[in-house]
Design brief:
Blueprint: H1 3-17, H2 45-50, H3 65-75, E1 83-84, H4 86-94, H5 104-115, E2 119-120, E3 125-128, H6 129-142
Antiparallel strand pairs: 1-3, 2-3
Helix pairs in contact: 5-6
C-alpha cells in the first residue's frame, strides 16, 4: 500500500471508530480527512472502504504544458524557505545548461536519487533545493563533466 492510500485508509478508519465531531455543523469528517484525499491520484472512497488493504492501480493524469505551467506558477507563490515543489525541481533540471549533455539514464539516476528525499508535511510534496543541485552535480561528475558557474 502506498503513502496516499495508507493515509486515506487511516483517515477512514478514524472516522468509523470515533464519534462525530461538530455534528451540528455537519463537519464531522473534516477533522479526520487528510489533504491527500483531494489529490488526483487518491483512490476513490469506495475502494478505501471496500478494499482497504488492496493496492489501488494508480494512473497519473496526463498533464499538458499549460497545466504544468499553471502548477509551476501556483507553486512559486508558496512561502517555501529553501524547499521547492516537485514541479520546481523538474524546472530546475530542465533549465540546467548541462541538460543537453545528459542521457535518459542520467535523468533516471537523478529521479532515483531525489525520490527518497521528497517530504510531505501535510500541505504537499517538497524537497530541499540543494538536494536537486546535488543530484544534478552528481550526475555531471559521474560523467566527467565539470561546469564553471
Amino acid at each position: 500500500m502506498d503513502h496516499i492510500q495508507f493515509l486515506c485508509v487511516r483517515s477512514e478508519e478514524s472516522i468509523q471508530q470515533s464519534p462525530p465531531i461538530n455534528d451540528d455543523h455537519n463537519l464531522e469528517n473534516d477533522v479526520h480527512i487528510s489533504g491527500h484525499a483531494l489529490m488526483a491520484t487518491c483512490p476513490p472512497q469506495s475502494h478505501i472502504i471496500e478494499h482497504p488493504k488492496d493496492p489501488y492501480p494508480h494512473k497519473m493524469p496526463e498533464l499538458g504544458t499549460p497545466d504544468l505551467m499553471r502548477l509551476l506558477d501556483l507553486s512559486s507563490r508558496l512561502p517555501l524557505d529553501g524547499e521547492i515543489t516537485p514541479i520546481m525541481a523538474w524546472t530546475m533540471i530542465r533549465g540546467h545548461p548541462a541538460l543537453p549533455l545528459m542521457a535518459e539514464k542520467d535523468i533516471e539516476t537523478m529521479k532515483n536519487d531525489l525520490v527518497g528525499k521528497v517530504r510531505c508535511y501535510g500541505f504537499g510534496a517538497v524537497l530541499e533545493e540543494f538536494e536537486v543541485r546535488d543530484a544534478i552535480e552528481g550526475v555531471l561528475a559521474a560523467n566527467g563533466y565539470q561546469l564553471d558557474y
